[in-house]
Amino acid sequence: MSEADQTKKSMPRRFVNLSTRLLILTVSFVMLAEVLIWTPSIAWFRLA
To answer: Over the chain (48 residues), what is each successive 10-residue block's mean pLDDT?
Structure first.
């Protein structure tokens, strides 16, 4: 077994590199911000 194969097996399949982690964090924060902005807006629309 080569050294590259051992390295691949030791790393988890998800969140392998920094760019993947940053993409997931960015998408998560955008979705959270969207929920925090739109929820009061929808509630206000229903009351009005």
So the answer is: 59 76 96 94 83
